[in-house]
Amino acid sequence: MTTVEVYGSRVRQARVLRRMTSKAVMAELGWKGARQTRLEQAEVSSLDMEDFLRVTEVLRFPALFFTTPPASRVDAGDLLFRAPRATTAGEKEYLAQFAAVVGDFLDGLDSGWPLPPVKLPVVDASTSISSAAELVRERMGIDPDAPISYLTYEAERCGIPVVQRLRRSRSTGALSLDPVDDDAGLSEKHLGYSTRVGEYGDRPLVVVRASASWERMRWTVGHEIGHLVLHAGGGEVTEDQELEASRFASELIAPAKAIAAEVPKVPSLLNLVPLKLKWGISIGALIRHLAASELIEQQRYEMLRRQLYTRLNPDTGHTWGKTEPGWDAREPERPRLISRWVERCYGATTAAMLAPHQLMWPQDLLEDFLAGQRPSPNRGTPTAIPSSQSVSDGGTVIAIDRFRQRRRA
Ligand SMILES: [Zn+2]
Predict the structure, then answer these.
(1) What share of the chain has pLDDT > 90, as a percent?
(2) pTM (predicted TM-score)
(3) Residue 46 phi/psi, 5° resolution?
(4) How many angstroms separate the Cα of 341 from the Cα of each of 11, 108, 283?
(5) If you measure from the C-alpha of residue 210 to the centroid of ligand 1, how many angstroms do you get, rounded to a whole number?
(6) Which residues of 166-192 are buried (b: 16+ CB within 10 A; e: fewer)?
(7) How far, in Å, from the CA of 217 to the mean position of ligand 1?
(8) If you measure from the C-alpha of residue 208 to the centroid of ligand 1, how many angstroms do you get, rounded to a whole number?
(9) What backbone phi and psi angles, to 5 degrees, belong to 62?
(10) Other CB atoms within 10 Å distance of the CB of residue 126
(11) Residue 224 Cα to ligand 1 middle (Å)
């Protein structure tokens, strides 16, 4: 009888990513007792071919996924985000396993074409937030007094891939980051999470929820970089650490020292707009930042904040807090590293074009990895590599065509 060696943690990952309970999986498989749990907890188990094929069918993952050892290990406790109270253990586990499989996918890309080296520093608790932000700017090669035109791009150049989660994910149909209270002002902090992935846990990863607000997308990336730099020790993120990451984001995007001279004598929502647009920071975040940096009085901050969240923007019918002046001045930033590397390694520009490579990922999960990525500006006509040009190397399919990439200007 033919048997197949299956990695328990892969079975668990597939089940969690499909948002299925062990009970539901067992019911589908007609298994009894604790068979599913035993399978998931064992490092490797032998399944006879018939059972194995049923497992791949029920979980809708390619066979190769279950027979490939996992490299990234991410637990819910490794996630750098302050989970809203309503977040269930199952959702946290989902976010952790999503990060883990993205990590393995990135490993595959890295072996095809080295990812940008990680230049992001890690600082200890004695470092001030402004010094930490200054250090990150230095590593990014950005002057201390220059606006950052495209923060997501700088993050990716610094070795931090960014994955965007759409409101409805392809692989699960549901989005697991919590609903956002748009007028709460502090809601930005729930829009993303970050962690470290890879065999040695040294590749930072940021996952952000897609948002129509350019101010929010950009600031969320800054906030997550803050966690990665300030809170690398991991563990449950505290409310104080949330505030630190938020202060970091504002300081990275608009260093207090650099903007001090540009703050109007009597700041108002309208005369702060040029500052907002120059530095690319929401007025909501900017006034908090100005107050925290003692560039405006607490009293003025309270007043501006009140105005922001009560006055209506006549163009949108929402409060200025939701759609601020300048809300439509830019397009939301989008990541590009993953799509760029998929193109480099596989000659593919869509998830569908990866199908001939017979990777270990289901199509809908590949679509999640590539969701919301922006296409390369200098993309030529893409050429798919036929599967005959892929080789199987120790269970992992890698493209051998990468050396034949056309040169691009
Ligand atoms: Zn946070």
Answers:
(1) 72
(2) 0.87
(3) -95, 125
(4) 27, 10, 35
(5) 16
(6) eeebbbbeeebbbebeeeebebbbbbb
(7) 13
(8) 11
(9) -60, 150
(10) 6
(11) 6
Ligand 1 center to 211 CA (angstroms) = 16
Task: Please choose, from the candidates 163, 162, 187, 165, the residue with its C-alpha nearest in 3D space to the C-alpha of residue 176.
Answer: 165
The answer to whether the beta carbons of residues 226 and 249 sit under 8 Å apart is yes
Q: Residue 378 — pLDDT band, cuts 50, 70, 90?
A: low
d(CA 144, ligand 1 centre) in Å: 24
**Which domains, from first to last, does the chain contain?**
3-70 (1.10.260.40), 77-258 (no CATH), 337-404 (no CATH)
CA proximity to 163, closest of 115, 212, 221, 219: 221
- Return the CA Rg of the chain: 23
Rounded distance from Cα 80 to ligand 1 centre (Å): 7
Tens digits of per-residue pLDDT, 285-295? Answer: 999 999 999 99
User: Ligand 1 mean position to 255 CA, how many Å?
Assistant: 19
State the residue for tokens 């109007």.
264
Distance 77 CA to ligand 1 centre (A): 14
| Helices of type H across 254-361 | 256-259, 273-279, 283-292, 298-310, 337-346
Collect all residues with Cβ–Cβ distance below 8 Å to 76 and sequence separation of at least 6: 89, 92, 93, 95, 96
Expressed in angstroms and rounded, the spacing between residue 82 Cα and the centre of ligand 1 is 6
C-alpha 6/C-alpha 317 separation (Å) is 56
Q: Confidence class of residue 173 from pLDDT cuts 50, 70 and 90? A: low
User: Cα torsion for 193, 124, 252, 306, to the nearest 10°?
Assistant: 70
Residue 145 in tokens: 């007094």
CB contact set of 137 (below 8 Å; sequence gap of 6+): 143, 144, 148, 252, 255
Pairing of strands 192-197, 203-209: antiparallel
CA of 232 to the centre of ligand 1 (A): 12
CB-based contacts of 264-267 (< 8 A; 24+ apart in sequence): 267/296, 267/300, 267/304
Whole-angstrom CA distances from 24 to 94, 122, 174 are: 16, 42, 18
Residue type, 84: P
pLDDT tens digits for range 324-338: 989 999 999 999 999
